[in-house]
Design goal:
Distance between the termini: 18 Å
Largest sheet: none
Helix content: over 70%
Strand content: under 5%
Shape: elongated
Structural class: mainly alpha
Length: about 190
């Protein structure tokens, strides 16, 4: 006899998934802007012999933001790097064990270390109102540095959702994962 579904855990995991999805979709627009700004930089440099450091730095800032904030979205979509040659052949229960153990012993300790160790770094940057070291670079470097703990927090929350979903599978409850929805079945 299967255990009764736990709607609280399912709703919590689903809510965290939505947070990752919305932030990932929002930050994904920066990739379009990166392409546009990079084209502008190239045209300005090679056609008009002009260049602005702040414009070039903006591409780096956008890329860093996409990478750090988009990591949670990538995990939510199950598009992160893993050894699929082994993982895809496993049963749903074994996949849930891999996900749960990987989350508890690898993902969460790493993201929490990044989160807490970056707070002092970011706080110092805010305190001194840090700016780019390049002449003509972007002001407010502290804003970019603030994305580090934000990205780590979002990735931790998505890892927690993955862990919850894996736990649901191990308990014999429906998990309603992104991959299950895509394939039409359960994890």
């Amino acid at each position: 006899m299967a255990a009764a579904p736990n709607p609280i855990l399912q709703r919590l995991a689903g809510g965290l998934d939505k947070l990752s999805q919305r932030t990932g979709e929002a930050v994904s627009w920066l990739t379009l802007f990166m392409v546009i700004v990079t084209c502008i930089v190239v045209i300005l440099r090679y056609v008009f012999d002009l260049g602005w450091i702040w414009l070039q730095e903006s591409v780096t800032w956008m890329h860093a933001t996409v990478f750090m904030v988009g990591a949670a979205y990538t995990l939510q979509r199950e598009d992160h790097v893993r050894v699929d040659i082994l993982y895809r052949g496993m049963s749903a229960r074994k996949q849930a064990w891999v996900n749960l153990l990987g989350t508890v012993f690898l993902l969460l300790p790493t993201t929490l270390l990044i989160l807490f160790s970056s707070l002092v770094y970011v706080s110092s940057s805010w305190q001194y109102q840090e700016v780019s070291q390049e002449a003509g670079g972007l002001p407010a470097l502290y804003l970019l540095k603030a994305v580090m703990p934000l990205g780590a927090a979002l990735l931790s929350l998505q890892g927690f959702a993955l862990g919850l979903r894996s736990l649901l599978v191990l308990l014999g409850l429906p998990a309603d994962s992104p991959s299950a929805r895509a394939s039409g079945g359960e994890l």
